[in-house]
Amino acid sequence: MFGNETSGAMRPIAICLHYLGGSAREWDLVARHLGAHVEVVPIDLPGFGDARETRGYTVDDMVAYVADAVRARQPQRWILVGHSMGAKVATVLASEIERGAHDLPGLAGIVTVAGSPPSPEPMDDAQREKMLGWFHGDAAASDAQAREFVASNSERLDARSAELAVTDLLRAERSAWTAWLEHGSREDCSDRVGVLRTSAIAVAGADDAKLGPDAQQRLMLPHFATAQLLIVPHAKHLLPLECAQDVAGAISLVLMNDLYHAMIASERVSTPTREALLARARPIDSGYQPKSIDRTAFETLRAVVDRVVPQAGTPRIDLAARIDEQLHAGQSDGWRFAALPPDPQAYAAALATLDDAARARGAQSFAALEPAAQDDLLHGVAADASVDGTSDAAPPGRLNGEQLRLWFEDLRADAIKAFTLHPQTLARMGYSGVANGGDGEPKSGFARIGLGEREPWEPVAFEDTSR
Amino acid sequence: MNLTQMQTYAQDEVVDAVVIGTGAGGAPLLGRLASAGLRVVALEAGRNWEPEDYPSDEIAASGIYWLGERLSAGSTPNVFGANNSGMGVGGSTLHWGAFCPRADARDLRLRSDGGAGEDWPLSYADLVPYYEAIEAFIGVSGPASYPWDAKRGYPLPPVARNAPAELFARACAATGVLASDGPVAVVSRNFVQSEDHVRPACINCGYCHQGCRIGAKTSMDVTYLPLAVHHGAEIRAEATAIGFERDARGRITAVVYRRDGLDQRQRCGAVFLCAGAVETPRLLLNGGLANSSGQVGRNYMAHVATQVWGTFAQETRPSKGYPSALISEDMLRPSDADFAGGYVLQSLGIVPMTFAQQVARGRGLWGKELVDYVLGYNHVAGVGINGECLPRSENFLELADETDDNGLRKARITFNAGENERKLKRHAAQLMTTLWQAVDASDVWTLDRFAHTIGTCRMGSDGGSAVVDAYGRSFDIGNLWICDNSVFPSSLAANPALTIMALSLRTADAFLRGGATA
A449 and B162: CB-CB below 8 Å? Predict the structure, then answer.
């Protein structure tokens, strides 16, 4: 976040679009977590919440409706946040804005939350038929159906939120409900949407059966040039109610990334610096195949790196893939511990040794251990308490305790290297050093360098602004 | 640097000298020999850079670090790569920190004064005229009157103080330590380097270690190398020296180097080996040269470079500004020392990846603690030292069994911090912790660290126990001269580059006085 833009005219607006059967009220908790630095503008889509009487249930109808609502406010800087059904509306609207179909400047990003993708939504016919049959019997039956919907789509709702969701479902216009199930969810807008330049975070509940991490990875992320996936553990589908803090975090991160990327694009950053940063910002494909170590070792590496540089609450930068690419490139960093074999062999042997140690503790692999047990094992490695309890000589393809300790030092350095210089991390740090003067002469550099001094344009650490 | 108008020499022309390496050891003497009318060719393993091309990015800038793999052994294995040797026209001065105190006179006679360490075969007075000439030529910023040397004043006003420097000044004032703006080889105002080149004043961008993009920082490619080229020297970039041809008497007749994948040779009358304290002995050992003393590779030293870091309530934004603007030389001979030698103190700013990796390696943090601490980067500041390291037989460079892409065996460096280094470090860590506590730092921690590669081809007055004489000339091979930090008999507390430059000019003068024909 940037210090001079947290309030007043430049306060960004988050246009929030709810799920099928929800309403503007589902964003109340998110708004509370965001506090003063973002203005949350939740919208009741036609047929829902206070817009129950409003007609126009197709995707295009809803897109036009939201565009009008944004136009009425004329925000200078804003983002689209769409939950489930609302995400499809958000992505289609964003694609139209990118094509210049609306005069709506200032769109800084998109957050999709358990988003329904631009393509037909993955939904089995039996489920669709079942839901189409809901809400036209007696009140008791409808109430039970609403409760079933809420219960099956959430994992950790407090009673108040559950009640709110049930009430919203029961006050929805039934023709809007059926229109989405029969038509809206089946519309294929994927070609229209194409690949969006707008920066995005896709939030997914780890336990969401139909629109969880896998569906987001397959159906949503391909529509963005730079989208990142944020997986929320122990959550299903009603994320703004289940885990409002994580959703609020994603909104802040998209805004932060947008400002940081604006700084990177500015003339304060030199061309070679910008190129290095943008190359690093490019997400790594989720189907990444390891090049320097085998698949098993790579899974172990991912698990170890997750413990060394945990990334809860933010979209995960695939640090293990970046380490693998570095190993594959064979580019030495100028030295290695003489006690260790060359880097790729050291990594392979270390990871195999960790898997051995996990098996000795009754797990199938290091990755299969509980996090606490993983940490316990790694603490032993760092302290050179031989993980296998044996002496100096390591069998072929394995490392002894001292070697493993040295390797773990290398690993920590490699993991934090990949993490620190990623633009998302630099943005969270509020790091201004890359904007130290662009191309040509004279270069701007810094004038305000003393204690507590800051140029007006310098970013502030994410944690400092949300504190 | 601009090499388009450079004079070139044919490989079969016997040039007066080939200089291997274009850093602080090779460049000043290249300039002096060329100015004297000699035909000289410098071989540089790295590429030629334009300052504008340096990325302000710690990973993308790795092209200026020497990344040929070295094996680090011993109880305190040394970190190389970005921390030490450099690559490119200008050598490690492309990424050096430009902190350039002079050697303390007492450090050159450590053994005579206290029985520990080693004496140099020259005195401070021998170096002073060179120091003065270099400071004026390269543009050193600092106080007009230096607190620890009444005779010394720096030609340019001090560089701006950043947040760590302000904290250091306050901390020293609170604890009775004398602090001063440091001697810094960064021009604090526009500086006329030559008739056609004005180096602009430092803009406080903070990326000294990734290559100065405006030439405000002294590196050889904006100072001595243009001088050398102006006077007819050739700089052959991307040419890695791999061996020597010798005549029946053992004198070197040509330097063999690899360029564009081909082995090539430059015939020459003399060789100046200026590749640094790792590559210089490595080249000699690979070729089996100049080692009748058995001292090539021996007595490897690394400065005690302990740092103390703390977190401050106010933002420090430690990348901004020249990183080590303040100095104290009060601890060159602490009254309560239980060790030989001493150390210089400096304030420390830092760029983020260097910081994060130091934390991950040196503080041993991982998990949420590591991430949270790194994200608090905008509030940290450091103080550090550069301290004496004694030459000892258990610290040495040898050849490993593995070879590099050029078929040369890699260097394996064994380094074990000794009792003296441990005591010095303990003293410094205690003082620096006190300093940071005096300015209300929280989360104060000490990073054990070593810096600079020193020793391995020591100079001396006796060919039985030294590789080169007091002027850098090999005792074994009359037309081989060595000039870099490998010739240091002891480490000195001061950062080495300024003294290397002084030795470089001194070596050139000796050669010009007649060493060439002896």
Answer: yes
B342 within 8 A of B387, measured Cβ to Cβ: yes
Contact between chains at B374 and A419 (C-beta distance less than 8 A): yes
For chain A, the C-alpha Rg in angstroms (whole number) is 25
CB-CB neighbors (< 8 A) of A439 in chain B: 52
Q: From CA B66, how far away is CA B87, in angstroms rounded? A: 5
Give me the residue label for tokens 């933002």. B315
A308 → chain B, closest CA residue: B367
Closest by Cβ to A420, choosing from B161, B162, B353: B353
Residue to substitute from B49, B56, B373, interface A, most A β-carbons within 10 A: B56
Contact in structure between B411 and A463 (CB atoms under 8 Å): no
Distance from CA of A267 to the nearest CA of B (A): 14
Helix or strand holding residue A275 (H, E): helix A271-281
- Nearest CB among B160, B167, B317 relative to A454 is that of B317
- Is residue A150 located within the same domain as residue A221? yes
Between B67, B314, B319, which is nearest A451 by CB?
B314
pLDDT at position A333 over 90: no
A87-101 burial code (b ≥16 CB/10 A, e <16): bbbbbbbbbbbbeee
Pairing of strands B326-328, B180-181: antiparallel
Residues of chain A contacting residue B72, judged by C-beta atoms under 8 Å apart: 335-338
On whether any CB of chain A is under 8 Å from the CB of B259, the answer is no
Cβ within 8 Å, pair B351-A453 = no
Do strands B240-246 and B409-414 pair parallel, antiparallel, or not at all (unpaired)? unpaired
How many C-beta atoms lie closer than 10 Å to residue B164's C-beta?
32
Residue A466 lies inside a defined structural domain of this protein: no
On whether residue A175 sits in a domain, the answer given is yes
If phi > 0 it is left, if psi is from -120 to 50 it is alpha, else beta; for residue B128 that is: alpha
pLDDT at A315: 87
Strands A13-17 and B40-43: unpaired
- Chain B contact for A65 (CB, 8 A cutoff): no
Same domain? A306 vs A404: yes
Q: What is the pLDDT of residue A37?
A: 82
- Token look-up 């610290």 returns B395
Inform me whether the C-beta atom of residue A415 falls under 8 Å from chain B C-beta atoms.
yes
Instruction: Report the domain count for chain A.
Output: 2
User: Residue A191: CB partners within 8 Å, gap ≥ 6?
Assistant: none
Cis peptide leading into residue A442 (ω within 30°):
yes
A409, A443, A446 member nearest B214 (Cβ):
A443
Q: Which of A421, A432, A460 sits opposite B57 (nearest CB)?
A: A421
CATH number for A67: 3.40.50.1820
Determine, for residues A451 and B203 on separate chains, whether the beta-carbon distance falls below 8 Å. no
Within-domain flag for A198:
yes
In terms of Cα–Cα distance, which of B362, B415, B412, B427 is closest to B389?
A: B415
What does the DSSP 8-state code read for residue B72? E
Task: Read off the tokens for B452.
Answer: 């600079």
Read off the tokens for B382: 């450091």
Model pLDDT, residue B510 = 97
- In terms of Cα–Cα distance, which of A201, A223, A218, A45 is closest to A122? A218
Q: How confident is the model at residue A52 (pLDDT cuts 50, 70, 90)?
A: very high
pTM of the model: 0.92
Judge contact between B479 and B247, C-beta under 8 A: no
Whether A448 is covered by a domain: the verdict is no
In this structure, are A17 and A148 located in the same domain? yes
Is residue A221 located within the same domain as residue A339? no
Which residue segment(s) compose the domain that A64 sits in? 4-261
My answer on whether A56 and A177 are in the same domain is yes
Beta carbons of A232 and A156 less than 8 angstroms apart:
no
* A444 close contact with B: CB closer than 8 A: yes
Q: What are the beta bridge partners of residue B307?
A: B384, B447
Amino acid A465: pLDDT: 58
Whether residue A177 is found in the same domain as residue A78: yes
